User: Which sequence fits this backbone?
């Protein structure tokens, strides 16, 4: 069994506790306007032409996006980083794209990672079948769960899919007893008006239990925009500016009133 992965990040410190290895799995059923990993949305391997300039001369080469990994090769990479992972109480994170899109591979990767003693995390949009989440719960220590918008029409408009299944899965995972970190992308003009933020704060207060360990506020940024050019995908967020530091600080204080730890960034 093999999984299609478009990036492997060693020494990651933003995808769960400690130092981690994060596997970015290819394919996502969503198509968020602000996606920072557009190369991860297609579920197929892709080839892109990359052009580099040295002085006046341009050099072009093909770049493969997406490579198949076996479970053994995942474990091999983890074992290479074992010392750092163990010393920092880190682990392995499966991200994407949406890792649940390759559910069978994910399940095996989680089982094998746990069997080898690693702390496991799944970074998910929440958009998958409830039974798939039920299957991975026993092998997952931490869920990084995105809440993009509570309003269904707004959610469809900006991500291409309804949020009904996502919110149902959020409640399901909250009852699982596993650790959860809620990730809120802060997108100006989409989910940052005061009325909506109050609604979101109430939603968190009413649905939370001991599983909810942290709220991560992820400010919109344009760092990924160069990838759109590179992968020849139209960039739709050119007119949106990142929220400033003061605004993020106020938002952090606002969400701290939920009683949950809040962090700006991953
Ligand atoms: S869910 Fe994540 S990976 Fe998928 S399109 Fe949205 S931002 Fe990109």
Assistant:
């Amino acid at each position: 069994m093999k999984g299609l992965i478009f990036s492997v990040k060693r020494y990651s410190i933003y995808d769960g506790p400690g130092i981690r290895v994060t596997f970015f799995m290819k394919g996502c059923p969503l198509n968020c306007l602000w996606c920072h990993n557009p190369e991860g949305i297609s579920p197929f391997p892709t080839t892109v032409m990359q052009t580099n300039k040295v002085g006046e001369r341009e050099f072009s080469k093909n770049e493969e996006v997406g490579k198949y990994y076996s479970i053994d090769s995942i474990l091999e990479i983890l074992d290479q980083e074992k010392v750092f992972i163990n010393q920092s109480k880190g682990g392995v994170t499966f991200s994407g794209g949406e890792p649940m899109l390759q559910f069978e591979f994910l399940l095996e990767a989680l089982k094998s990672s746990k069997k080898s003693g690693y702390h496991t995390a799944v970074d998910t949009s929440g958009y998958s079948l409830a039974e798939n989440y039920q299957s991975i719960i026993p092998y997952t220590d931490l869920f990084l769960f995105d809440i993009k918008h509570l309003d269904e029409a707004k959610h469809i408009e900006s991500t291409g899919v309804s949020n009904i299944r996502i919110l149902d899965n959020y409640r399901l995972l909250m009852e699982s007893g596993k650790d959860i970190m809620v990730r809120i992308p802060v997108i100006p003009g989409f989910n940052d008006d005061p009325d909506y933020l109050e609604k979101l704060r109430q939603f968190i207060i009413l649905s939370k239990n001991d599983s909810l360990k942290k709220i991560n506020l992820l400010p919109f940024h344009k760092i990924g925009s160069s990838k759109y050019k590179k992968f020849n995908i139209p960039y739709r967020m050119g007119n949106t500016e990142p929220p400033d530091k003061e605004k993020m600080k106020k938002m952090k204080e606002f969400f701290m009133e939920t009683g949950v730890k809040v962090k700006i960034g991953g």
Notes: The chain has a mean pLDDT of 95. The first helix runs from residue 71 to 80. Residues 2-264 form a domain with the TIM Barrel fold (CATH 3.20.20.70).
